[in-house]
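Write out this protein's structure.
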Amino acid sequence: MSLGRYAGLLAMLLLGACGSTPDETHLTVEYYRAHESERRRMVQSCANDPGDLRHAPACINSREAARIEDVGNLRNLAPMGLPAKPDAKTMSTGPR
């Protein structure tokens, strides 16, 4: 190989090593679902500045993870302990 090819290969390797590190915009819904403290921190941060952060990917992903994890499916919630539905025959509408 010629010296130019080695220099080109070395330049490509150095530029590839200088790539940016993953930041919060690359964190997925699954990440925020698995990391509760990060999810709560990001949701709080997004709620504090909704004008600038409302459409940020990290805010969208953390809010979606919070929606899934914090309440989840309504079918999975415990019974609310509401009184039984009154029977139609026992309900009085007044004198007739």
